[in-house]
Amino acid sequence: MCSGSFAKCLGITLIPLAILSVLCNILLFFPGGSVVSQNDHITKEVWYFGGIMGSGVLMIFPALVFLGLKNNDCCGCCGNESCGKRFAMFTSIIFAGVGVLGAGYSFIVSTVAIHNGPTCLYNNGTDSTWANPFNNGNYLENHTLWDYCKEPEGIVTWHLTLFSMLLVMSLLQAVICGIQVINGLIGSICGDCCGCCGSTDGAV
């Protein structure tokens, strides 16, 4: 498979991952599937926009670049066009790096959010307050602590599910962009389609 075609496959994979990441981040603004009355009732890591900016917006740029590399596919990768096509593959490495940074940001935000747990209404011993009762990550092993959260209903499951999805998708995006770095290096050195020149010359 030519490097341009392979890059297109990677770009096609990044698009749905970016869309799903944005949707997950948006859903986190509705804890437990409900609309909250105050912004401070939403977990603070949601406001870091890891899914919207990191795995979403920043991932669109490399995805579009990867998709565009298909135009450099066989068998127009010979002659005077070779330098331009190799430069395009080299440029894709830079955008892949941007994708890795975006995915890394989303991964870090998701990891911190999972460790800290959600913001919810709980009883602190004297009265009920909106805060984060799980900031040391102990709730991950002790599920009985989930009962501390009275509102929104099912907030812990909601929080863990969506941030875990963001965590997994950011990992996948980082791997895909990392693969394109290698693919881009090969395309930059060998050309977009190694071996096309010989087949084209033979056909003339």
Automatic annotation (TrEMBL):
It comes from Umbra pygmaea. It is found in: Membrane. This is Transmembrane 4 L6 family member 4. The keyword Transmembrane applies. One of its GO terms (cellular component) is membrane. Belongs to the L6 tetraspanin family. It holds the Pfam family L6_membrane. The chain crosses the membrane at residues 12-34, 46-67, 87-108, 155-179. It is a multi-pass membrane protein.
